[in-house]
Design goal:
Two copies of one chain form a homodimer. The first copy, chain A, is an alpha+beta fold. Chain A has one domain: Nuclear Transport Factor 2, Chain: A. The first copy, chain A, is 25% helix and 44% strand. In chain A, strands 1, 2, 3, 4, 5, 6, 7 and 8 form an eight-stranded mixed beta sheet that branches. In chain A, β4 and β5 form a beta hairpin. The longest helix of chain A has 17 residues. The first copy, chain A, starts with a helix and ends with a strand. The interface between A and B is medium-sized, with 28 and 28 residues. Chains A, B: Pfam families: SnoaL_2. Chains A, B: One of its GO terms (molecular function) is steroid Delta-isomerase activity. Chains A, B: Keywords: Isomerase. Chains A, B: This is Steroid delta-isomerase.
């Protein structure tokens, strides 16, 4: 049985909050074992906790904020638009993907794919 | 080789325009042979031109307008938010999905999945 829409929405909101202020471990805890991450879509697919931890460690300790846009949930899957703004010194980097997530019956993420293009969906200010 | 970002964007824009004012044949022409359509996600997957034509015939002759929101294109795939407003008599029905499309190297759609929930992402006014 698919996770409920409410549970999935909760996980998406936790994810967006943790990407801004959480640790890599906290984010990885939202994922199922052997989950996959493809970010951005078209690049190598990461699989499993170690690889996912490594991916999110890049965000740890950065000054970051996130905001969630349109979210759609159907059939135990979610797609959602969000913005991640990281600040390094006086520069702000904004990435604005649409993510696709698949969930297991307990609401853990089994697959995440982030749709964005570094040449058009990222800006510096 | 994946279709170019420009080609994919063009097909997405054609799709959104044709959903409002095109015929089922014109829309089906954007699809590859043996393409699949899952709309909304979680319902039965349609496969092939006849089934896709049948799906879009439901829109033919309706008074409809569409608007395209955020579009993200990566790795030969696209996700995009849009609104479809159909008017029947004095009632307007708004559906606001996020669609995911996969394209072949010629830019034809090989798979479309529409993420929306009839209980939350559709409104009547």
């Amino acid at each position: 049985m698919a996770a409920s829409t409410e549970k999935i929405r909760e996980v998406v909101e936790s994810y967006i909050a943790l990407v801004a202020t959480g640790t890599a471990v906290e984010i990885a805890d939202l994922y199922a074992e052997d989950a996959t991450v493809e970010d951005p879509v078209g690049t190598e697919v990461r699989r499993g906790r170690e690889s996912i931890l490594e991916f999110y460690r890049g965000l740890e300790g950065m000054e970051a904020r996130t905001s969630l846009g349109v979210v759609r949930i159907a059939g135990g899957e979610a797609v959602f638009h969000f913005e991640l703004v990281t600040t390094v010194g006086e520069q702000s980097y904004t990435v604005a993907p649409i993510d696709h997530m698949v969930f297991d019956e307990d609401g853990r993420i089994t697959a995440m794919r982030a749709f964005w293009d570094p040449t058009t969906d990222m800006s510096v200010s």
